[in-house]
Design goal:
alpha/beta, seven-stranded mixed sheet, two-stranded antiparallel ribbon, 9 strands
Length: 266
């Protein structure tokens, strides 16, 4: 991976051309990368990119590293946006992605809706928020590079969205408990702590804020979908029911772990 990056080629090219000799600059780049990885730094930060939903996104220590299981959030959003019955009384659909980080979810969704036949006569707008200006700058660059139409707003959850309503709200919030030992292990040591945990004992403080404030920012029949921890499905369902969501759903990732919760308002 490091050699491919230094040569600006694919890994397949590296394998197919073992006779290729690195020049001094390329060799230094590879050795520097090896040293960073040996110190524990995630490869996504060493390379500066991570693949998500078929696209490569710029990432840095200012952003969470996009993970494959989060693609489930995009898939569930597309499932709702492909529902002709849900769309029939709408001239368009507005989507809000909160805590966007690198913009992976918002941008992937914005690019994917163009390929959904049911959405052909509808205008889908995507808004993404984050409290970190550094993360938003990276998200904007990713949107520009991938030619995705996304509005970016610097805000903490619903702050800065006064009076605005959406048809679909998405979030991959911090949900790791503040005392979780994993925060001091592996890649998590290098990722922005506020993107991993809200510091609460159960890791649900941000999810409570998202679920509790969603009704005021959803149009009638609107959906809320969010990622949560492996052991938080029951707690998330209870929060959704308490906040007036009908028939909360729980979706499993490819490992069979409940990963995304959601509900429809009204």
């Amino acid at each position: 991976m490091l050699i491919a990056e230094a040569l600006s080629v694919t890994r397949a090219y590296v394998i197919a051309h073992p006779e290729r000799v690195l020049d001094a600059r390329q060799e230094k780049s590879v050795r520097d990368g090896i040293a960073r990885r040996a110190a524990g730094e995630p490869m996504a930060y060493v390379l500066g990119t991570r693949e998500f939903y078929g696209h490569y996104f710029e990432v840095s220590p200012a952003t969470l590293i996009p993970r494959p299981e989060t693609e489930l959030l995009v898939e569930q959003a597309l499932e709702r946006l492909s529902d002709r019955k849900w769309l029939e009384h709408r001239t368009g659909a507005s989507v809000l992605d909160m805590g966007t980080g690198s913009g992976a979810v918002a941008i992937s969704l914005a690019l994917a809706v163009a390929k959904v036949p049911a959405l052909a006569p509808h205008d889908v707008t995507v808004t993404a928020t984050d409290i970190s200006p550094d993360a938003l700058e990276i998200a904007r660059r990713n949107a520009l590079k991938l030619h995705a139409a996304v509005e970016f707003v610097e805000a903490s959850w619903y702050a800065g969205l006064m009076g605005r309503k959406f048809d679909l709200i998405l979030a991959n919030p911090p949900y790791v408990a503040g005392s979780d030992a994993h925060l001091a292990q592996g890649d998590l040591r290098f990722e922005p702590r506020t993107a991993l945990t809200d510091g609460s004992a159960d890791g649900l403080a941000s999810i409570r804020a998202i679920v509790g404030g969603a009704a005021a920012h959803l149009n009638p029949g609107g959906w809320l979908l969010f990622e949560h921890g492996h052991d938080q499905a029951d707690a998330c369902r209870a929060l959704l029911l308490k906040s007036g969501f009908d028939n909360p759903i729980s979706c499993m990732d490819l490992a069979g772990i409940s990963r995304v919760a959601g509900g429809q308002i009204g």
